[in-house]
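If you are new to this repository, start here. Below is one unmodified record pulled from the training split, so you can see the exact layout before writing a loader.
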Amino acid sequence: MRFVNNAILLHHTIMAEVKIQTTLGDITVRLYDETPLHRDNFLKLAKEGYYDGTIFHRVIKGFMVQGGDPDTKNAKKGANYGAGGPDYTIEAEIKPGLFHKRGALAAARLGDEFNPERRSSGSQFYIVWGEGYNDSKLNQFVKQMAMVAEQNILDRLAQEHREEIMEFRRNRDRAGLSALQDKLIAQAKEEAKKQNVGMSAEAKEAYKSVGGTPFLDNEYTVFGEVIEGLDIVEKIQNAKTLPGDRPVEDIVMTKVTVC
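And here is the target side for that same chain:
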């Protein structure tokens, strides 16, 4: 099944396609030239046979399927995986026009507490499934995105003014501390407005018509999309899983090749 809908495909120059052959069928993904670091890394690993024999080690029905951990080659029964990868990470390439519609290919990463720069795993990736959304839910997401952006800015400003804040606290200068907090909050609001956080008409249409995971937008790097084999992704995300989200029966990437 080839998944090419002109109404929802992102507009970009076609640079490369990769076929992921699995024990449930084949998936072909197109890589975006807007994310060259991730594109080139994925191509490099595919050419090296890095993914051959690995499994989809994390599958969550209605959400996504994840693979790319080299430790899963000859995976042991009952073991949990997800910590493996090459000895490098990739600089984030989070772009406003690249979003988590169903079939999006994105890079896994460590959480913000360990990875504030949101650098991507050197090899692990996931393919989005998600669900459909109506206008009301999408508007709620837009508001949440704006709030998160504002809070992230405020956290950064508070860190930058840490010494000043501590000085006010040591001197028990509540008035000074309150004035500084009001100033930083106002600055965070202003900076957040300039970021123009929101959701494009194209993204809204995709989330309403085919579904996805909009709550992951601006958090992870999307670097491609499924153009053939979305029905295989559906089969994978429907697989019965064990605690830890590993499928009961291993779903193996038998061969990953550049088209």
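Two things worth knowing about this chain: The mean pLDDT is 91. Residues 10 and 142 are 20 Å apart (CA to CA).
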